[in-house]
Predict the structure.
Amino acid sequence: MTRELICIGCPMGCELTAEVEDGKVISVTGNTCGVGKKYAETEITAPVRTVTSTVMSDKGKPVPVKSAGAVPKDKIFDVMKDIKSAVVTLPVKIGDVAVTDAAGTGVDIIVTKESF
Amino acid sequence: MAEKTALAIIGGGPAGLAAAAAAYDCGITDITIFERDNELGGILNQCIHNGFGLHTFGEELTGPEYAARFIEKVKERGICCETGSMVLSISPDREITVVSKAKGLRVIQADAVILAMGCRERPRGALNIPGFRPQGIYTAGTAQKLVNCEGFLPGKEVVILGSGDIGLIMARRMTLEGAHVKAVAELMPYSGGLKRNIVQCLDDYKIPLLLSHTVVDIKGKRKLEGVTIAEVDATSTPIPGTEQYYECDTLLLSCGLIPENELTLTAGIKINGMTNGPEVDDRLTTSAEGIFACGNVLHVHDLVDFVSEEAGRAGRNAARFISGEGAKEHEPDIHRVIAGNGVRYTVPCTVDTANTDEELHIRFRVRNVYKGCTITVSTGDGVIVSKKKRITVPSEMEDVIIKPDKLGAITGDITVSIEEGRV
């Protein structure tokens, strides 16, 4: 079986063709770099995404955050639930942890903007 | 007597910050950045998604993180930043009128000026959508600011017109915040945004992208009740019988960006009708001596990394101008840059090959989607650069670089064109 994908690794958006057998990726073509190959492999077996959002602060001002690493795609809305129920106390700086182990993914949610 | 500064930079977004740091590193320390917002960083502050900085830093950053890297550079160098300061006009001889709460109205004489004011969104008034004007219609960027900076969700049932990157990003953002995005309608037969954003912002959330579709009616007198979307033909005319009604309380517009050049006009600077930005030469100098331009005020970019790179060049060129190194040592040898087959515009418009030692960047956008094409740069004596591309699309800016050793060989006009089959 072949699967057509568009790499989201960078803005180039390479059009990838992956050969899949028994749920395993046999080969990837169309990629310009190693990121494309890796993307196709994870996208087909266990797709992941970086989540970005905002966490409310004690002063009523939203603070931008991101997941410190990629989380499973089917956990995105669970991660969002944790992000929405969290409140951070200002001041915060880039890298501060806003949510530990979001939705049991093992990935922390960290602040991306110094706020006070 | 007027206050003085060696280099005045108008705008403290990604372009202004990178230009300031680069000029400082070329020995100009008397720099003032004027920013009308209360903080530096410009539009990056509301672009909380990731995907910035792959070219510049080799890693994927969010907008605020990318801005912080450059704000840090500016602060480390002790560059003066006047936030909350609005520039009202610039004279052709670089006299700047600026107003702020803290210092009132002032006139400042600058040796050189860098225009880095960025761009703004095309509003509903410029789109000719028929129907009422109820509450609930926002540009995508306004909605982005409301959600990300104010913590306020503008609506629950959403339709987006235009598939520019901000619209795609907002489709995902509103979905994550609990809104239901019903569709993204795009007038053109291709998307206006990056391919990766179609995948990770629309496909991931099963939001339909309706190509060759537009909004033909808006219903709701006080509050938006719904929109009618119809398919369009090759001439962008709605096809009767294809209308479909979408109930919604929010319509987001992501229909293009316009460089913000009111200040540029006050200095009498010549504007390029294709980019809506100033006409510049290879040093990014506008038609007014000592006034440079970079970033989205010059032409709309899709990647901030390209803005930072371009702004760095503007900063270095402004520094050279101030220190007198910019004086034309040789008799100028000016060549026009022509947008040839398949090319909508080029930046710069002219190149002085006798007085340049940096590599030459020619940035441009193509008119259409071209597959398996070749970008060629030719002059009187034939092709000097030829670059094969698997695909070029209007939404993604192209950049060709001409090495300094090739510039001497240029005779006559420089023409950038696309060869090969259109799809």
Q: What stands out?
A: Chain A touches chain B at residues 6-11, 13, 15, 49-54, 56, 60-62, 64-66, 73, 76-77, 80, 94, 112-114 (CB under 8 Å).
